[in-house]
Amino acid sequence: MFQTHRATRLLIALIACAGWSATAARAWGQTVPQAVTPISANREAGLAAWQRVYSVLTNPRCINCHTATQHPEQGDDRLPHLFNVVRGPEDKGVPGLNCATCHQGANAESTGVPGAHNWHLAPLSMKWQDLNDQILSSAEVCQSLTHSLSGPGILKHHEEEPLVLWAFQPGHHRDGTARSLPPLTHDEFVAATRTWVEAGTPCPQNP
Amino acid sequence: MQTYNLTVNGERKKVTTDPSTPLLWVLRDELKMTGTKYGCGIASCGACTIHLAGVATRSCVVPVSLVGDRPIVTIEGIGQDPVGRAVQEAWVSEDVVQCGYCQSGQIMGAVALLKGVPKPTDRNIEQSMGGNICRCGTYVRIRAAIKAASQQLHEGGTR
Amino acid sequence: MTAAVDSPTLALSRRSFLRVSATAAGGLIVSLYFDFPSLAQEAGQGKAKVYPPDAFVHIRPDGKIVIQVNRLEFGQGVQTSLPMILADEMDADWSQVVAELAPAADEYKDPVFGIQMVGGSGSIAHSFQQYRELGARTRAMLIAAAAQQWKVSPEQCRTEPSVVHGPGGRSAKYSELADAAAHIPVPETAPLKNPADFRLIGKKTRRLDSRPKCDGSLKFGLDLDLPGMKVAMVAHPPVFGASPKSVDDKAARSVPGVVDVFEIPMVKGRAVAVVADKFWTAKQARDRLQIDWDFSAVEREDSSQLWEKYKTLAATPGNVAVTRGDEKVLDSMASDSRIIAEYEFPYLAHTPMEPLNTTIRFDGDRAEVWAGSQFQTIDQAAIAEVLGIKPNQVTFHTEMAGGGFGRRAVPDSHVQREAAAIAKRFAGTPVKLI
User: Fold this and answer.
1) Which of B31, C195, C272, C335 shows the greatest Cβ crowding within 10 Å of its Cβ?
2) Residue range A42-46: average pLDDT?
3) 3-state secondary structure at position A45
4) CB B43 to CB A83 under 8 A?
5) Residue A102: its chain B contacts at CB < 8 A?
6) All residues at 6 or more sequence positions from B133 whose CB lies less than 8 Å from its CB, including other chains
7) Does C119 touch chain B (CB under 8 A)?
8) Are C208 and C96 in contact (CB under 8 A)?
């Protein structure tokens, strides 16, 4: 009885340490090796939540600007953006042909140009496609994301960043038809992100 | 209909128009400033390029309702700017134009380029000017004129 | 030079040109591939048409020399090159030369083709001699006026740019002599310069229209603004030859500033026109039209059918454009010495940068037109036909144009016909069709 009690206390202490070091590691933006993270109901929920987050990240409204190339994509078919626009040194295009050359601070319904505050490409560190425009796997995007930002940082980005908010109110094409929406509402997306972050931003294994 | 107070080439202008009207048509039809050209209406050619708060902007797709108080500079006013003047002089001395319809936009694009990259390489020119279409094909002279303007501005050369 | 063309092709009358051009756009292209240098040479000799200098040159009291260009300028530089030719023979001060695009009129017709037009790279070939003679005649008249005033002989006078010099140090500016020169009878002949004495021809010269094209001040046809002007746009069928079956224009008419919505005939089929107070109104209204199109009259061609037709035509002997050497030599060549190749060209879009436009004001028994037209006298006649008046009742201004590349070379004048059909309903009001 006494041994079990001591073993249990040791186990609790171990878990606590792992939990503490995991939290510390998150704050520094590092992933904790999977082997240390304890299997819990939390992790299952976290992984499920991650898949919901991933479904939004990889829909055209988001992934068109999270490219690995020197240009954005355009449309539901994610073709290279027209008019020879390029990424530029600060992800905002180049002088004479910036993103802001056409994209303003709000959707231009009468001309069909989408817009939101500070329209520009996600940096290459946040690329979710490869150089052939193939969407990266769930595991790869998860790794990429958790390497770039902390859990709270990701949550804040998903909750407040104007370009993220735009994806859920993307406006209309010139012919009046609505742009297609991500698979979740913004509220659902934030909720899923929160669940995933609270679970310790678990990433699925690579298949 | 709504009233907008715009600053165009340093002057205050008041227009009352449909909020959805692209800035291009406010300039051309309300203010009678036809130097900025209509080539496509879908931001694909660059003939409508003006500067909005110093950023080269395709006025055919920006509704006047989104302009706000950002100052507007058009081809009619760019000569008041030393870079604008140098570009226009280089355009004349290199005999760039042919039909000329795209050139207002080319010049506004070139000025934005030179303000951002004072000594542009061929690659800079290609990336910044590659979205301004010229059906007459004056690209080679455009590139030469940009380099001539750059030289004139930064080395005080006579070319 | 190149081999002379057989005489039957030289007498290219206006009627035969129109017959060629009326067959199809392809027919027009064939006519423009004749051997121009020798055509022009042959046409120049023995024609003896004297073009009136006062229709081409106007010397203003301030010294500016305004030269009329009998061609459309759309980037090729003719509004600089033709004045250079005239100014050189005239000994005009080039810094004072101003070029204007001539309106539609008989004296501005192409000397070889007999209609007012530009195309087939014929501007210099057909008008080099013409503009030299105009310049030379103008100079001769200025000298004659000076000689008359000084009571000396013309042979004692010589010219420097824009100045006549006489014996004893006398001199007079062209601007001072212009009025008197206008009363001198136009000489049948006038001596042309020795090419070695050219000041302008053959020398690097900058375009006259550069600066205004670089500061936004030059007006193209699309930039025209007239008091009371309305703007028209047309909803064209998606296929040649279709017509509207039904038109729902409620949404279109509800846009504030729309004046009217109505059907107009096209060369084939019918379309729907919107007339409004300005471009953006017309554009919004046009885009809100709900049109159900009737395709029953549409030609049932398709691309593969057309390719088959082209291949068959290519294998069929056609008109001889030019003969070089002896084609029978080909037959005697061994087949492995012959190279036969078939080239397929895709559809080549013209896409000049300036959207096509025409402005017309119809006044009942007269009309005034402003257009960047490549075929002024053909367009003038088409507009007159639609309006039910005579061509000489149509004043036709030639506007500077933003490129052509074939798109303005349209023998059926379809843009002008649509503009006229619209303007006809708004007598007294200028209507700009975009």
Assistant:
1) C272
2) 92
3) helix
4) yes
5) 43, 57-58, 61-62
6) B39, B44, B45, B46, B47, B102, C353
7) no
8) no
Model ipTM value:
0.96
Q: Do C216 and B88 touch (CB under 8 A)?
A: no
CATH of region B78-155 = 1.10.150.120
C292 phi/psi in degrees, rounded to 5: -100, 115
pTM equals 0.87
Q: Do C217 and B76 touch (CB under 8 A)?
A: yes
Chain B touching partners, 3 or more CB pairs below 8 A: A, C
- CATH superfamily placement of domain B2-73: Beta-grasp domain (3.10.20.30)
- Chain C residue with Cα closest to B85: C215
CA-nearest residue to B35 within chain C is C216
**Closest to A73 (Cα-Cα) out of A135, A13, A17, A149:** A135
* Closest residue in B to A113 (Cα–Cα): B61
The end-to-end CA distance of chain A, in Å, is 43
Q: Which of B98, B99, B135 sits opposite C351 (nearest CB)?
A: B135
Nearest to B45 among C75, C283, C353 (CB): C353
Q: Domain C221-298+350-433: which CATH class? A: alpha beta
Per-residue three-class SS string for B26-42: HHHHHCCCCCCCCCCCC
pLDDT at C324: 82
Question: Are A93 and B55 contacting, i.e. CB atoms less than 8 angstroms apart?
Answer: no
Q: Per residue of chain B (159 residues), give pLDDT as tens.
A: 999 999 999 999 999 999 999 999 999 999 999 999 999 999 999 999 999 999 999 999 999 999 999 999 999 999 999 999 999 999 999 999 999 999 999 999 999 999 999 999 999 999 999 999 999 999 999 999 999 999 999 986 444
CA dist list (Å): A36 to A102, A149, C180, C243: 49, 21, 107, 74
Asked if B16 reaches chain C (Cβ–Cβ under 8 Å), the answer is: no
Domain positions in chain C are 49-216, 221-298+350-433
Q: In the CATH scheme, what architecture does the domain C49-216 have?
A: 2-Layer Sandwich (3.30)
Handedness of CA A136, A140, A142, A147 (dihedral sign): negative
Query: Closest Cα to residue C139, out of C100, C197, C209?
Result: C197
